[in-house]
Design goal:
Helix 4 packs antiparallel against helix 6. The radius of gyration is 20 Å and the shape is globular. By secondary structure, it is of the alpha+beta class. Helices cover about 40% and strands about 25% of the residues. The longest helix is centred in the C-terminal third of the chain and has 16 residues. It has two domains: about 110 residues, no CATH class; about 170 residues, Aminopeptidase. The protein has an eleven-stranded mixed beta sheet with strand order 1-2-3-4-11-5-10-9-8-7-6, with helices on both faces. It is built from eleven helices and eleven strands.
């Protein structure tokens, strides 16, 4: 069974709408539609197929990519990936000290979803509160968090969970999606703010990289696509500390007709709109990135 079949089964069980187009799996991601699968894969859609996806799944646009390209490719769109595990012996002294400190402070291991559901809530809330600037509306209730995580239990072959413990307390956890033997997507990493001085993030990433790249032989691990409006501290951290790199690809975007028309007719006032509305600024930047090749 390949990853498309596996993820079709998972999405069906989780009651999440999806669509198949020429063997490619697409899902709704908040306000847009995107493929499910490894970033290295080349996806392809015609305008008619993209419009049909919008009718089936909703969303303001469909985006897809065309596989990794040479570093000389004229594109600003990339995934942040790591192809090679770096052992402690091969690290610069300062980095080796940081990773060693994390490994000494924390017990990092792969766990099942039920363990995250039971012990991960405090870390999730603390990390989310810091990210959301204290917005309580973004914080789920414990029961909601637990219920959502437990839906992963039947799919432990394609969705892995990791945890870092300090003195018996979970201070960090991660969720990973596996695509055949090609990619492991580090889809979620949550660090309790108090774990920073423990270097828990260093220990967690080092152990996951070792497991997937060295022990299991995946082609690469992926921290996701670049941010639309700004660089992220996490991606900078991974590039600077763990040999992650920017893997270029070509971005394609098909806006739904009303939004596409709005973007075109508002061209004269785009500079003002960029300053006034971050959401509109993100849309304009997305369009620019898709056209920048």
């Amino acid at each position: 069974m390949n990853y498309v079949q596996q993820y079709t089964e998972m999405l069906t069980a989780k009651r999440k709408p999806f669509a198949l187009v020429d063997g490619q799996l697409f899902v709704r991601q908040q306000q847009w539609i995107a493929p499910v699968g490894p970033a290295a894969q080349r996806y392809s859609l015609t305008r008619e197929q993209a419009r049909d996806l919008q009718k089936k799944l909703g969303g303001w646009w469909v985006s897809w990519t065309e596989g990794f390209r040479a570093k000389t490719t004229a594109s600003e769109w990339y995934a942040v990936i790591c192809r090679q595990f770096v052992s402690l012996e091969k690290m610069p002294a300062k980095r080796r000290y940081e990773v060693n400190r994390g490994l000494k402070n924390c017990d990092v291991r792969r766990v099942d979803a039920a363990e995250i559901a039971q012990n991960g809530y405090e870390t999730h809330v603390a990390a989310l509160a810091g990210y959301a600037g204290g917005n309580s509306a973004a914080v789920p209730q414990r029961e909601e968090f637990s219920k959502r995580v437990l839906t992963d239990v039947p799919f432990a072959d394609i969705k892995h969970h990791w945890a870092a413990y300090h003195q018996g307390r979970m201070v960090a956890f991660a969720q990973c999606l596996l695509y055949d033997h090609t990619e492991v997507d580090y889809t979620l990493i949550k660090l309790h703010p108090e774990s920073r001085e423990l270097y828990a993030g260093y220990a967690l990433v080092q152990r996951m990289n070792e497991f997937y790249l060295h022990e299991k032989g995946f082609e690469y691990v992926n921290d996701g696509w670049r941010s639309i409006l700004h660089e992220t501290a996490v991606q900078d951290f991974l590039i600077g500390k763990f040999n992650f790199e920017k893997a270029l690809t070509l971005l394609r975007v098909e806006f739904c007709p009303p939004l596409g028309i709005l973007l075109n007719i508002s061209t004269p006032i785009h500079p003002a709109l960029r300053r006034l509305d971050k959401r509109f600024a993100a849309l304009l930047e997305l369009r620019r990135l898709a056209e920048a090749h």
